[in-house]
Amino acid sequence: MTSPPNSLTLHKGRVLIVDDEADLANTLSRALALEGHAVTTLVDGAAAVEEVAREAPDVLLLDIRLQGASGLDVLAQVKAIRPELEVIMMTGYATVDSAVAAMKAGAFNYLKKPFENLQHVLFTVTKALERKSLLNRTRQLEEELQDRFQFSNVIGVSLKMKEIFKKIRRLAYNESNVLIQGESGTGKEFIARAIHYNSPRRNQNFIPLDCGALPEGVIASELFGHVPGSFTGAKTTTQGLFRVADRGTVFLDEIGELPLEVQVKLLRVLQEREVRPVGSATPVKVDIRIIAATNCNLEDAVHRGVFRQDLYYRLKVVSLDLPPLRERREDITPLVHHFIRKYASEASRAKDIDAAALRLLSRYDWPGNVREVENCIESAMAMARGETLGVENLPDALMEHVRPTVSATPSGGLSLKAYEKYAIVQALTLCDGDVLRGAHMLGIGKSTLYRKMKTHQIAPRAFLESEKPRI
Asked: Are residues 262 and 381 in the same domain?
């Protein structure tokens, strides 16, 4: 039997009650319906299993003793069908053994009948629904995270990046340690996460650590854990990141900043697959994959004696060298469009970028690499008022670096007048004859640019017709 919820409230959850005591079941049903839940009551275990398979309730209130069936058997069956179902066991014959058996079989809670306080039952159902909602949200976030780091989201059309793609696809299916080298902002952590979330370890922890961000006296404890009394202030046992990441992946960013004494301990982890907490003589086995990254030359660090050679080769089982963006300019355009899609929202009307702005972005060297591209587009999207990003939306700091520069002597010689004309022509060429954008690029007002164009006999229409003026 199904009880309708209070018409003034939304369904908080779908609750199935399975109990052969009709009066108790009806009392529970009415109380839950008044709380806004959609409630169904049954008396038969087999019917309950069919209902769970067909309707997928959120919470099941299940009597441990049913006519012709054991509630524990029904619990096992419904959990096999829907592991996410929260089950609250009810019984008038409560024993420690039955409670333990129910909890081991996956029950959320265990209630004794007759209920002394109906509000306690309602509270328990609410907590079960909250737990289910939290688990659903966690599962959704995990799926979104895995989707985000799919290989298809690693952006690049250049030959260099295509070679990187081939390597990381192969790396996803083995357990080799990986060393990723590249300038700041090239996407080292993104690549590390892509390897992890496409590997058999995808459902386990990915633990990142910036080795240069922690004081020298703290990093060993952070990685390997510690026991009470191992140093001043160590009052409790700490597992350390390697043990927290057991069966998962540890990402050690800026590995070149690791102190030499910690490098020795890390080498033992790689060789023996065990960690020894600070202050302890007892090693603990761990099953982890290590991906390290650096923006410095580790080989040079080995020669200078600040990085262990044996650790270097242990980490560099497979090496990925991420090229800076200035060496793969063909990737700038797809990256720009990717970040426009990422930041397109109701708050920003912009959905595209015009050719002039895109040409400017393609000319810039991007010392901050992919991270700087993302920051630039996010900033431009925040300030845009139209549906297309233009030169006027680009950050001023970037414009300072891409304003036209004289790369060759203009035909008019070395006079200031010749250079001025040359700069104006370059700006208007980049902006397809758009005077407002050209003025913005040159750092002058629109009326000033018109006046200078008249002086130099430069016509905007010439650029629209792709006829470059003589300079």
From this structure: no
| Residue 11, helix vs strand vs coil | coil
Structure tokens at 385: 């008022």
Give, in degrees to the nearest 5, the angle at Cα 291 between 290 and 294.
135
Backbone phi, psi, residue 14, to 5°: -100, 115
Where residue 251 falls among pLDDT bands split at 50, 70, 90? very high
For 422, the domain range is: 416-464
Is 411 part of a structural domain of the chain?
Answer: no
Distance CA 450, CA 424 (A): 10
Residue 95: phi, psi to the nearest 5? -135, 160
What tens digit of pLDDT does each residue of 291-331 get? Answer: 999 999 999 999 999 999 999 999 999 999 999 999 999 99
- Note the Cα 406 to chain centre separation in Å: 43
> Taking CA 46 as the corner, what is the angle to CA 44 and CA 51, rounded to the nearest 5 degrees?
90
Q: What is the rounded distance in angstroms from the CA atom of residue 42 to the CA atom of residue 99?
A: 22
State how far the alpha carbon of 332 is from the alpha carbons of 126, 181, 376, in Å: 51, 20, 12
Q: What stretches of 244-283 adopt beta strand conformation (E)?
A: 249-253, 274-275
Residues pairing with 328 in the sheet? none
Task: Decide if 340 contacts 361 (C-beta within 8 A).
Answer: no
For the sheet containing 289-294, what is the strand order?
Answer: 206-210, 249-253, 289-294, 178-182, 318-322
On whether both 194 and 304 belong to a single domain, the answer is: yes
Q: CB of 88 within 8 A of CB of 32?
A: no
Of 83, 110, 141, the residue at which a domain comes to its end is: 141
Three-class secondary structure of residue 48 per DSSP = helix
Q: 109 Cβ partners below 8 Å, 6+ apart?
A: 88, 89, 124, 127, 128
What pTM does this model have? 0.62
Omega of the bond leading into 324 within 30 degrees of 0 (cis): no
Distance CA 97, CA 33 (A): 32
Q: Which amino acid is at 377?
A: I
Judge whether 469 lies within some domain: no
5 has pLDDT over 50: no
Instruction: Record the tokens describing residue 159, joined without a space.
Output: 């030959």
Indicate the SS3 state at residue 239.
coil
